[in-house]
Amino acid sequence: MKGLLETVVRGLGNGSVYALLALGFVIIYKATKVISFAQPALMLAGAVAVSYLVEVTGFYLAVPLAALMIALLALGIERVAIRPMVGRPVFVVAIITLGIDVVIRVVVNHYIGRDVRQMGDPWGFDQVSIGPLVVQERWLAMLAVTAVLVGLLFAFFRYTRYGLAMRAAAYDQETALAQGVSVGAVFALSWGLAGFLAAIAGMFVGTGQGVEQLTWIIALKALPAIILGGLDSLGGAVIGGLTIGVVESLFQSYQGDIAPWLGQNFAVVSPYVVMLLVLLVRPYGLFGTREVERV
Amino acid sequence: MLDVRNLEVVYDDVMLVLRGVSLTVPKGAIVALLGANGAGKSTLLRALSGLLDVHDGEITKGSITLNGEPIHHLRPAQVVQKGVSQVMEGRRILGELTVEENLRVGAHTRARQIDANLERVYGLFPVLKGRRRGVAGYLSGGEQQMLAVGRALMASPEVLLLDEPSLGLAPALVGQIRELIVEINKQGTTVLLVEQNATMALSIASHGYVMETGKIVMDKPAADLLSDEDIKEFYLGLGAEGAAKSFRDVKHYKRRKRWLS
């Protein structure tokens, strides 16, 4: 029982990172109807930015600074590469984001070099005991920060002028335009938010193990999360992310004993197995809008 | 005063939909714009509010001025800022948002006056106040129309463009909407009313325009239009032969439409 709970906490910690990334995907998707494949690169860039800034400003200042930097970078990308493509087929824009992803990663790799860069975070692999459980501090930090960010995000969408404008534009762009909402600003804002969240996620991915050139692959686990939660649901992104994290963690702890015939490291592919199952059974995800189409 | 001069609008670079439309909406008036389906009424409104872009339309000639200031090259957000708000055809409520959130979206360009405007809208439409926390998609048709009008009023417009507010509403509700339009106008908002329900529109308007295939074909004070023979027959459905029509007569028009006025 103790082992199971510790496994779940680890899963929730990792899952909250997936949730942050998934939120970025969903925010951009809702605003522009495009899945942005540039998220992994933004995440990596965020982590690397933290690893450099930490030497200058200290960890707690480096994180928000890096997140803002990446948000600005995302704003720039949107303005330069995405905005001119408004009205073009969604597929084309998605491929452009793939290209952007590659470009950013090549540039960022130059700053990573061959070694692993450390975040300089205060948690490392330190452990803490809550009652009988012994868990790593960083899982708790991830969960706490994600909870705060998600809370802020939902308040933003509920109460602020631009949050409402973004929801309106997601629901019906022409109506939003008629109310005086600038849809361009909504696009820009969605990219900025996604960049900010990706940078925070990148920082957490780097805690303990640091970042290297291949770290970006972790961001792909946000895809199973958004498929599970539903592409156009913010709540779904959070729940999907956490679920994927827990599933992966459970496989890590128990698959070796229960199903050794699956081979080692099956946990790495488990999120994608979940994604395949969801796509087969419920392609619009848990909370997504069901596509009704007449043939 | 909203002034449209010789406006030409082309869709998809080929379809000429408005062919030199001129129209004036004096300050503080209610002006009705009548016309059958496909006459170009909605296109004219889109041109006024800057929404042509969404539909691949473009103003190729002419001008639109608000109090002497040209507004036809502005983006939709700027047009709303200048004081021209449109209630689109079919209400276009943001169904997933609550009633109050819908209204707040309408106040996007007038964030400072949000409280005063909310009070005004709730005063005009008490029904909405009762359901302010309810999801807008669950409102009835009449309530949705009120919400759409209220949402446009949240931007404190000088000119309100109404596109078929009576569409799909029961006659009793149409009467209610009619009274609300008069009330809104009394509070100082100029109204351009696009309608198929000509009786309703002309009963409250001071001036009327009739559009057909992208042109204004008639332009008279509302009272004159109401008594015009052609309007009576083709828009109000009570012409000389309207009284007793047998199916034998329905096959052909006895009178041909002639716009020679």
TrEMBL record, chain A:
Subcellular localization: Cell membrane
Record's keyword terms, sorted: Amino-acid transport, Cell membrane, Membrane, Transmembrane, Transmembrane helix, Transport
Chief localisation class: membrane
InterPro entries: ABC_transp_permease, BCAA_transport_permease
CDD domains hit by this protein: TM_PBP1_LivH_like (cd06582)
Segments passing through the bilayer: 12-29, 59-77, 89-112, 139-159, 180-205, 225-247, 259-281
One Gene Ontology CC term in the entry: plasma membrane
Protein's GO biological process: amino acid transport
Keyword Transmembrane helix listed: yes
One example GO MF annotation: transmembrane transporter activity
Pfam families per UniProt: BPD_transp_2 (PF02653)
Topological relation to the membrane, as annotated: Multi-pass membrane protein
Database matches in PANTHER family: ABC TRANSPORTER PERMEASE PROTEIN (PTHR11795:SF451), BRANCHED-CHAIN AMINO ACID TRANSPORT SYSTEM PERMEASE PROTEIN LIVH (PTHR11795)
Recorded family membership: Belongs to the binding-protein-dependent transport system permease family. LivHM subfamily.
Protein name, UniProt field: Branched-chain amino acid transport system permease protein
Taxonomy of the source species: Bacteria, Bacillati, Actinomycetota, Actinomycetes, Streptosporangiales
From TrEMBL, chain B:
UniProt superkingdom: Bacteria
Single Gene Ontology BP annotation: L-amino acid transport
Keywords linked to the UniProt accession: Amino-acid transport, ATP-binding, Nucleotide-binding, Transport
Alphabetical list of CDD domains matching this protein: ABC_TM1139_LivF_branched
Domain ABC transporter intervals: 2-238
GO MF annotation list: ATP binding; ATP hydrolysis activity; branched-chain amino acid transmembrane transporter activity
Keyword Isomerase tagged: no
InterPro entries tied to this protein: AAA+_ATPase, ABC_transporter-like_ATP-bd, ABC_transporter-like_CS, BCAA_Transport_ATP-bd_LivF, P-loop_NTPase
Key word Isomerase present: no
UniProt similarity note: Belongs to the ABC transporter superfamily.
Protein name (database record): Branched-chain amino acid transport system ATP-binding protein
Organism of provenance: Nonomuraea soli
